[in-house]
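Project standup — Tuesday

K.O.: blocked on the structure for the chain from last sprint. Re-posting the sequence here as requested.
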Amino acid sequence: MARLRLRRLTSLTFLAVLALGTGDAIWIRREVEWKPPMLLSMERLDGALLIKLDREVCDPLEGKIEGFAIAGEDRRFHPADTAYKETGKDDQNSPQYDRKQLVLTRPMVLQPIHYRYGWGRNPLANLQVVGNKDLPFATQKSDNWRMEEVPAAVLKADVSLPLSRQDSNRIIEALREQDRNRRLAEARRLIESAAQSTK
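H.V.: unblocked you, prediction finished:
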């Protein structure tokens, strides 16, 4: 028989009795982390979004955090560059970061107003609780835009649901064009950066 008891908000204590063939019993007690990181708030900054979480998070491989996309008033989502919020410098002048706060930016989104994580066209997501506990940040979005409203102005205002094949194809083509434009802009920035570094 196993009993389950809530110990702290972020862990469970499992108590189990194992009966052996000899009639003796062994008690096993194990702390299990179960709570994934939760969103506390989202704040709009100049040219960025600040996401505040209740727990420290990371990419388990300590690489680039993936899965966020941001959009402005045009409702065109672009993969976000994600970084921890810098909180200051230590005595060696090295930057210090708050792993509970993420800053989302993208050069093509000058004034972001919403984010999506692990959503639709940005499904590869790797954010989880620090310590590689396999507790991922949940798929979510901050907007309430319907599919036929993203990106904005692709379809006429009085579109009927369900979407016709023609309307669906218009949205898909607009998204493909957006991807092409993003890749071209990224290539231009890379070329300009390389040209600057060779001067």
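K.O.: great, moving the ticket to review. The two ends are 73 Å apart (CA to CA). Residues 108 and 165 are 29 Å apart (CA to CA).
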